[in-house]
Amino acid sequence: MTEVNDEYFMQQALRQAQIAFDEDEVPIGVVVVINNKVVAKAYNQVEKLNDATAHAEILALTSAFGSLGSKYLPTASLYVTVEPCLMCCGAMYWSKLSRIVYGASDTKSGGLRFFTDEDGLVKPESWPFHPKAQLVKGVLENECASLMKAFFKSKR
């Protein structure tokens, strides 16, 4: 039997990121999990949909809201291969997620830089997520970062 843990769900998010890579989209993938069950999954579709807001996180959250018939996800964990941008941090805040788990950090476009101190720690007074949300960083970080590096190397 497969052990269900953060690495297991990040592997599923990586599968979504690979689909994005194969479709020439920035390779970011997401799964939304409730009670150890994937309730939504998505990958970046900015180019495909010609929509700057079609980030994997936004698409996965929209899918989860629709399938569950709820505007909040207080028992959900969101697994994303790359640190969320500022827009996606806002969407996660309003979604009231219980956990946000990401793989690779993004020093250029990651939204957490707006909320961290000089040591890279998120300042409690500017926590960008729901107050009860937990943040987990660096799950399968190397695998997540490798896919991004391969994508951008192919563009140069």
Q: What are the key terms here?
A:
156 residues, alpha/beta, five-stranded mixed sheet, 38% helix
Summarize the model shown:
This protein is α/β, with parallel strands linked by helices. It has helices at residues 6-22, 46-49, 56-68, 86-95, 141-155; strands at residues 29-34, 37-43, 77-82, 99-104, 134-136.
Major sheet size, sense and barrel closure: 5 strands, mixed
Count the beta strands. 5
Radius of gyration: 15 Å
Helix content: 25-40%
Strand content: 15-25%
Cα separation of the termini: 42 Å
State the order of secondary-structure elements, H for helix, E for strand.
HEEHHEHEEH
Mean pLDDT: 92
> Helix/strand/pairing class, anyone?
alpha/beta
- Residue ranges: pLDDT <50 for 5 or more in a row? none
- The helix tally amounts to 5
In which order are the strands of the major sheet placed? 2-1-3-4-5
Shape: globular
What does this protein structure show overall?
The protein is an alpha/beta fold. It is built from 5 helices and 5 strands; from the N terminus they run αββααβαββα. It has a 5-stranded mixed sheet. α4 links the parallel β3 and β4. α1 (6-22) runs parallel beside α5 (141-155). The longest helix has 17 residues, at 6-22. It is globular, with a radius of gyration of 15 Å. 36% of the residues are buried.
Give me the secondary-structure topology.
Layout (H helix, E strand, L loop, with lengths): L5 H17 L6 E6 L2 E7 L2 H4 L6 H13 L8 E6 L3 H10 L3 E6 L29 E3 L4 H15 L1
Parallel strand pairs: 3-4, 4-5
Antiparallel strand pairs: 1-2, 1-3
Helix pairs in contact: 1-5
